[in-house]
Fold:
Amino acid sequence: MSEEKTNSGNGAGSRRQFLKAAGLTGAAAAAGGSAALGQTLTGVQPKAEELPPNVPDWSRYLGEGVADRPYGKPSKFEANVIRRDVEWLTASRQSSVNFTPWHQLDGILTPNGLCFERHHGGAPDVDPDAHRLMIHGLVDRQLMFSMSDIMRMPRVNRVHFLECAANSGMEWRGPQLNGCQFTHGMIHNVMYTGVPLKVLLNEAGLKPNAKWLLVEGGDASGMNRSLPLEKALDDCLVAFKMNGEALRPEQGYPLRLVVPGWEGNIWVKWLRRIEVGDMPWLAREETSKYTDLMADGRARRYTFFMDAKSVITNPSPQAPLKHRGRNVLTGIAWSGRGAVTRVDVTLDGGKSWQEARIDGPIFERSVSRFYVDFDWQGEELLIQSRCHDSTGYLQPTKSELRKFRGVNSIYHNNGIQTWLVRANGETENVEIT
Amino acid sequence: MSEEKTNSGNGAGSRRQFLKAAGLTGAAAAAGGSAALGQTLTGVQPKAEELPPNVPDWSRYLGEGVADRPYGKPSKFEANVIRRDVEWLTASRQSSVNFTPWHQLDGILTPNGLCFERHHGGAPDVDPDAHRLMIHGLVDRQLMFSMSDIMRMPRVNRVHFLECAANSGMEWRGPQLNGCQFTHGMIHNVMYTGVPLKVLLNEAGLKPNAKWLLVEGGDASGMNRSLPLEKALDDCLVAFKMNGEALRPEQGYPLRLVVPGWEGNIWVKWLRRIEVGDMPWLAREETSKYTDLMADGRARRYTFFMDAKSVITNPSPQAPLKHRGRNVLTGIAWSGRGAVTRVDVTLDGGKSWQEARIDGPIFERSVSRFYVDFDWQGEELLIQSRCHDSTGYLQPTKSELRKFRGVNSIYHNNGIQTWLVRANGETENVEIT
Structure:
């Protein structure tokens, strides 16, 4: 068998056979793929060592059986498609973040295994049978729900992005990290199944003076935030499934709050308690954190909305251009205020803009996917994307943003991102001033 | 610390504290959750040993850090949510099938790790850098594509179901397997990213007499099928991503054919070769297999479409009713001819039907999710669902189906499924004759 392998792997020999099989002998081979598809697609005819063996091993030997993967995993060739964290960014790994590799994904959904994580006390392993959700405060009936109570209530399915308020936060003072995974990786987009929060609140019965909720998580950080009742009754969900299956532990298993279009920090995970009150709680995470320090030293508070934003995921520093000729530029766009209506792309640093092709379903407060199919002959590019949303808002430049916000902020940086594509295809995080 | 654990686990003590925290002391506790939510939701007040400790460990100790899961996995409490196979069904594990646990899922998407597998030579581990796709036959230019060639062509995103022609095949002669995972688990529903097959065929240039394609896989079974050119030019994709990430090995990594609405066997995985011809090839998988033997001994051939179908996933034999009062009945519906327009549900074996609530996005040739929120007081139920599609077609009963098809068939069984829900909630696969 090892001998067979050697034979099948024999470069010259197998190449001759392969070309024959492919009908690419003689003149055809000379012209070959290049004439066929043109420089713009295949580049040059592959060299012998680049060709597959005439009959690769995977076509000769049985693969894995159906009982070998009760729960499937990605191919071993995809081992570098992972969430990554930045060690110097936080003091501990439990109160930290890792980032979604958008440059390695496509479409509008984030696979559950690659949804970025942000937690303040680590990701706990909550036992769903022991977990309870309590609703109390300004209600007619204080209630306690088990998971099976909640899963017998009317449920809905919604696709929404979750973006950390600090996504792109490191870029306020200029380009810092090389890769959209790090500059824009604190967002994921998932189909949730859950019970409208309104249904649970109606079970409890709201007192006339009810105006705000305190939503609290069951993890060691006891994460809590104040949520306006109006939003809670509008479109919030108490979700127990993501992309069809149970929430992942790091995403709040067995129960999380979904707050469409609002900053991720308020999407409380491991949701255990909802207190109804008549004013906000001024909790730590909405006073000392998750506020926006302005140039004059005052801080914006309760800046819930994630405004329209976009980023080109390919090419990008982690995904440089590798071929001249035909290429696909792609990226993601989203708005916490509504739907993405249009995405513009520039290849020349904003001198000229073209409308990108948005493909795939478009939902409110969801990531949309855009494409520009273009031809590249090795010229230097300055690429940017800008998002228009259904409110008529246009994603601002970073300098426009700084005019109003200064550079003290950490959160809510939705400025236009610039990548420099060099003649050799290498791509870099830069800013045009 | 172990002592703390003991204390926090102290039933009576911690219950008292918990009820106090929950404001459910004294009279409130007596009436308690039940009065609050009514029998129909919570049933009786939980017993002390059912209550969580006042402060569960996951609220007291740090959880996992962000570097612990480069690629995430489900909670350990979800270990029974897996694909399952039926050992006696096939002679070998490599030419076999496993089934998607729809009774444990929700929404319309199947997580990649739970998409049913069906292969004829095992699931190979194909090296994407060595993989090639060849297009030859009645074309102007015979072509060979590397993965990077294909990934530089214009791509689209589409949500489609893939159903094995043999899904529910074991039910032709009457109820056989207890569980929708086994009776209806050979379908999954995924968002694909790929290049329209039309784009690749246009690169090659079709001869005037081109009418059929032979599509061939790179696995050890060399799976091949004849595909009418008209369908290939209509909506077929050469896909490289599913639900945002690369195809899984068992789903054709790095490249598979997507043939919306048609039987799964023709969605060739590990796609390596497309030959263009002027007539079908009469391959093994479209003559001795994947044909429908009629009562008179003749066989239907090239029966590509998967007709409108549905199944109730909850309650079902693997997911019995466990609580009286409010419950959620849910299931999935789909049609290979177009979109699901309506789903009817009966609780009394067809005497009376009600329209189910369809929730979540509706796509052409995709699974849709339906719900009936109902109240159950322990009465015996005979539950069925039936799917209407955009062509006006209504899913038939099994006996209607047998009138035309006899009972020799293995494939294309889209008859209405019946579950019997007993007084104790246990649920069984039955048929009404």
Q: What stands out?
A: Chain B touches chain A through 127 residues (CB under 8 Å). Confidence is low (pLDDT under 50) at residues 1-45 of chain B. The longest strand of chain B covers residues 187-196. Residues 308 and 393 of chain B are 7 Å apart (CA to CA).
